[in-house]
Design brief:
The complex is a heterodimer of chains A (430) and B (512). Helix content of chain A is 45%, strand content 17%. A 7-stranded mixed β-sheet of chain A has the order 1-2-13-12-11-14-15, with helices on both faces. A 4-stranded parallel β-sheet of chain A has the order 4-3-5-6, with helices on both faces. In chain A, helix 8 runs parallel beside helix 10 and helix 11 runs antiparallel to helix 12. With 512 residues, chain B is an alpha/beta fold. In chain B, the strands form 4 sheets. Chain B has a 5-stranded parallel β-sheet, with helices on both faces. The longest helix of chain B is centred in the last third of the chain and has 17 residues. The chains are: A alpha/beta (430), B alpha/beta (512). The interface between A and B is large, with 65 and 57 residues. Strand 4 of chain A pairs antiparallel with strand 1 of chain B, so a sheet runs across the interface. The structure holds iron/sulfur cluster. Iron/sulfur cluster sits at the interface of chains A and B.
Chain lengths: 430, 512
């Protein structure tokens, strides 16, 4: 089922020109569910454990998406619901309590436990929120237990991170009254966080913190004095939860590429009243370095066409970067979900004539891709080899969430990610 | 509730996908949420298939629940039949859809599709992947095999058989089929249909034409073979042709079933027997090997290990609970206890305790082995991308036996090299960390575990300086075992200190 709505219809009226309609599709979606976010969240919060309450399918998804089983005992696991559990609910809560107790005994290093809901736990209406409260009391103060859903009927891929961070927000400490603080929401690689910290400090913005923190005991404080930047484009519920705590969102494009990073930092600088001269003094050099790092990929990328299948919601910022800084031409940008206000600064830059699509009907979308014959298709792992087999060059979209790509010093790496399959294609003679 | 980190098998609908993806002209309509589409990457990435699996997922969402999930299913089925024009479809539910009870089979029947619809009932909360593959194949065979095609009287002409069991994402299934087809031809037996791999629904009609069935993977094909035997009087093979001995037994079995004389195999024989008898292989004698996999591959590998490489099987196990019995019998024959579990941590604990010199296992054991610094070869699913080599590498038949020899022996130190390491162990270039040159010159860090010390209530043993130094002179690849044996010996003697004499007393007791 495909409906064509003018783009303005999806946005706050009057915000955007309505020249190309957003294609909205509701057919088969070929995307991960939110559980997959655990793959990076469990590496980011070093003393947190993610216990999925789900089925064998959920466990198998985690294993298959992890690809290689690198970690002896990763900090995630699945409590697999079995036939006998489905017999009675009371029984299931006891089973869960027992499972949690056993897990925490085995892993005394755990300080924060997430009970992660799945499709089966939601369909049978297992109340994991209540379970988390109850078990928190049992295991307090050593371990805090929270709950969020990563189910495929509610969340797509990166929305799992959104749900996780939104669940953390109510329990964040309150900021002390006084100087305003800057909070950066969205999991980033440590190295990227450190780079941003240095730049913000040079801008004179003190009191910078990140959500999620690297440890359960190092979560940021939030309150009415907090201004926040989104480092990732998928944080709809997290932003709302932060606003509920009185924090104020600083709208900005996302920090991809020299331009995106500059605009993102500028949003904070403006909120802190940093002078234009100081901003230039701090950012001119790294910005020039970012632009330089892109140069070697431009001959490969500029003029080439790009087709993005919906995956993580990073597609629009990615397309904006590749079209404006690398000279690529955009065939179609798919996104699993289009957040009108968070995406507005991006869409203003991307321009009104780019075909956007939201949701998916994978067979039709592949037909469109075949017809467009783009030079590069950014797509999920299930589609990559079939498209390659048809002679189309692809890039796995999952790398965009596992690789540090944000900030000035990663702009070249981001371009390289997209250029590599083209370089490879150029070399192969078989 | 079962706490799981890694799983040996996926849910049963993954088994159904393995059957559907192996076949041509079949399409699977799977009532499932969007996240379940991850399964496509098993086939496109791990097996490097160039086409998406022939599966349409309904990808219903929370907002559809209770209103129109059934409608979504119907629309998906109609669209899929129109787009893909399959000869037949299978329909079913994944774990989530099983809970909402939309009855895909019933819904599909109401659609008046002009292709056969085979409904699948795969209970997600009690069954697993191999069972799902077996049930799916059985349903297809039952639904499609045509009784009218059973010849009235066989015996005339060249004998024919079907080969049953190979699927997509199987461990070396494609190469096994090629090897066994060649072997059967050499015996004068023609192959009617190979299924599921490469077969279409319309070809399955012709299964009854064959005189008998060759079952290569009982986990997947035994149920179907039993049905064909009962319904059409087609006998089926029990021997799995993995290893030289088993392949010879297999040839005898098929020739008896086909009523043909045993062929001359002299052109056909494997290199394994001579490779195993050649002097260099002497050092393989008594290598302690731990075997884990699906039941079929584990049992077969244990036989090859013991009879054809003269290894000592110190442990054997399987994650296929449905086939626990034959594995227990095999274990008894090797004088060990069978490990029947699908808990990865239990397997890891067993391996840590046994400290084998070689692990024959699945991808999961490969990771355990890497961590423990023990050589490992993969013999069974679950598999990963490197288990789909570009070259021809069957596990079955005489060529398969050659592959087994090479792939099992390769991760071990070479015989001569092992001698040299022993002789020159104090030489600075032959120190422990040097490792085998054919493995890149870097030894995996062997973990010298002292398992006894981990057990509560067991007093720790003290090693004297002399004894500890002497232990270091023992090559690293046997040092863990030496330490373990010595400590066990000391405890036996109620001692709390290991001296140089105790070390050698223990050596005298245990040998080597
Ligand atoms: S889509 Fe639902 S059932 Fe499937 S893996 Fe994700 S949470 Fe589990």
């Amino acid at each position: 089922m495909t409906t064509l709505l003018p783009r303005a219809g999806a946005m706050r009226p009057g915000d955007l020109p309505a020249s190309v309609p957003v294609l909205r599709e509701r057919g088969q979606r070929e995307v991960f569910c939110g559980l997959t976010s655990i793959m990076w969240l469990h590496r980011k919060i070093q003393d947190a454990f993610f216990l999925i309450v789900g089925s064998r399918t959920c466990a198998h998804l985690m294993q298959s998406a992890a690809g290689v089983m690198i970690f002896a005992e990763p900090r995630f696991a699945t409590a697999i619901i079995e036939e006998r559990d489905l017999a009675g609910m009371a029984d299931m809560n006891e089973e869960l309590a027992r499972t949690v107790a056993r897990l925490l005994e085995r892993r005394p290093d755990i300080r924060l436990l997430f009970l992660v809901g799945s499709c089966p736990s939601e369909v049978i209406k297992l109340d994991l929120g209540r379970a988390a409260e109850r078990l928190s009391q049992v295991h307090a103060p050593h371990v805090r237990i929270l709950n969020f859903s990563g189910s495929g009927i509610e969340t797509t891929f990166t929305q799992g991170e959104d749900a996780c961070l939104a669940a953390l927000v109510p329990s964040l400490p309150e900021t002390l009254p006084g100087a305003p603080s800057l909070l950066i929401a969205g999991a980033l690689a440590d190295v990227v966080e450190d780079q941003f910290c240095r730049l913000l400090e040079q801008l004179g913005i003190a009191n910078v913190s990140f959500l999620p923190g690297r440890k359960a005991g190092e979560m940021p404080a939030v309150g009415p004095g907090t201004r926040f930047l989104l480092a990732q484009p998928w944080l709809k519920d997290t932003a709302r939860a932060l606003e509920d705590r009185g924090a104020v969102h600083l709208p900005a494009p996302f920090p991809l590429g020299a331009e995106g990073t500059t605009a993102w930092l500028k949003a904070a600088a403006d909120a802190w009243g940093v002078s234009a001269a100081r901003f230039a003094a701090v950012t001119d050099m790294p910005r020039a370095r970012a632009t330089r790092s892109l140069q070697r990929y431009l001959p490969l990328l500029s003029g080439k066409s790009l087709f993005c299948f919906p995956d993580s919601q990073i597609e629009i910022p990615l397309a904006r970067f590749l079209s404006r800084e690398a000279g690529m031409e955009i065939c179609e940008v798919g996104t699993p979900y289009l957040h009108a206000s968070h995406m507005k600064p991006e869409l203003d830059l991307l321009g009104a004539d780019v075909q956007l699509s939201e949701g998916q009907d994978v067979d039709r979308q592949m037909d469109r891709c075949r017809a467009a014959r783009p030079d590069v298709s950014v797509c999920g792992m299930g589609l990559a080899n079939p498209l390659e087999r048809e002679g189309l060059t692809t890039k796995w979209s999952i790398e965009l969430v596992f690789t540090p790509i944000q900030g000035y010093d990663q702009a070249g790496d981001l371009a390289e990610l997209i250029a590599r399959p083209l370089m490879r294609k150029g070399r192969l003679a078989v | 509730m079962q706490l799981t980190v890694w799983t040996y098998e996926g849910p049963p609908h993954i088994g159904a996908m393995r059957v559907a993806t192996a076949m041509t002209g079949l399409h699977y309509i799977l009532h499932a949420p969007q996240g379940d589409t991850y399964a496509d990457l098993l086939f496109t990435m791990i097996e490097r298939r160039g086409q998406r699996p022939p599966v349409t997922y309904t990808t219903f969402e929370a907002r559809d629940l209770g209103s129109d999930t059934a409608e979504i299913f119907k629309r998906a089925a109609v669209d899929a039949v129109e787009r893909f024009q399959p000869e037949a479809i299978i329909v079913g539910a994944s774990c989530t859809a099983e809970l909402i009870q939309d009855d895909p089979g019933g819904l599909a029947r109401t659609l008046g599709l002009d292709v056969p619809v085979i409904p699948l009932e795969l209970p997600s909360y009690s069954k697993k992947e191999n069972w799902g593959a077996s049930e799916t194949f059985y349903r297809l065979v039952r639904g499609l095999a045509q009784p009218s095609l059973r010849p009235k009287k066989n015996g005339a002409g060249r004998p024919v058989c079907n080969i049953l069991g190979p699927t997509a994402l199987g461990f070396r299934h494609r190469d096994d089929v090629r090897e066994i087809t060649g072997l059967l031809a050499h015996c004068g037996i023609a192959v009617n249909i190979v299924a599921p791999l490469g077969a279409s629904p319309s070809e399955l009609q012709f299964l009854p034409v064959a005189d008998f069935n060759v079952v290569l993977y009982p986990e997947i094909a035994e149920a179907a073979a039993r049905y064909l035997e009962k319904e059409f009087g087609q006998p089926y093979t029990r021997t799995i042709p993995i290893g030289v001995g088993a392949t010879e037994d297999f040839v005898a079995e098929v020739c008896a079933l086909a009523g043909v004389p045993a062929p001359d195999l002299s052109d056909y024989l494997s290199n394994l027997p001579w490779w195993s008898r050649s002097v260099d292989s002497n050092y393989l004698t008594g290598k302690r090997v731990f075997v884990f996999g699906d039941a079929t591959h584990a049992i077969a590998a244990a036989r090859v290990a013991a009879e054809e490489l003269a290894f000592t099987v110190v442990g054997i196990g399987t994650y296929s609970r449905e086939f626990a019995r034959p594995v227990r019998e095999a274990a008894a024959a090797h004088g060990v206890e069978a490990l029947i579990t699908d808990d990865y941590l239990e397997v890891e604990a067993a391996i840590t305790a046994l400290q084998p010199e070689l692990i024959l296992g699945t991808q999961m054991e490969r990771h355990i082995a890497k961590r423990l610094g023990i050589p490992c070869a993969v013999i069974s699913a679950p598999v990963h991308v490197q288990d789909f080599p570009a070259r021809y590498a069957p596990q079955m038949g005489f060529e398969g036996a050659n592959v087994l020899f090479d792939t099992w022996v390769h991760p071990l130190l070479m015989g001569l090299e092992e001698h040299l390491l022993g002789m020159f162990r104090d030489d600075f270039e032959f120190h422990d960390e040097a490792g085998a040159s054919h493995l890149g010159g870097h030894a995996a860090v062997p973990q010298e575990t002292a398992p006894a010390a981990l057990e509560v209530g067991v007093p720790t043993l003290v090693w004297t300086h002399d004894a500890e130094n002497e232990l270091k002179k023992i090559p690293f690849f046997v040092r863990g075992k030496a330490r373990r044996n010595t400590e066990a010996f000391a405890r036996d003697q109620m001692l709390d200190t290991v001296t140089l004499d105790i070390l050698y007393d223990a050596k005298a007791r245990y040998g080597r």
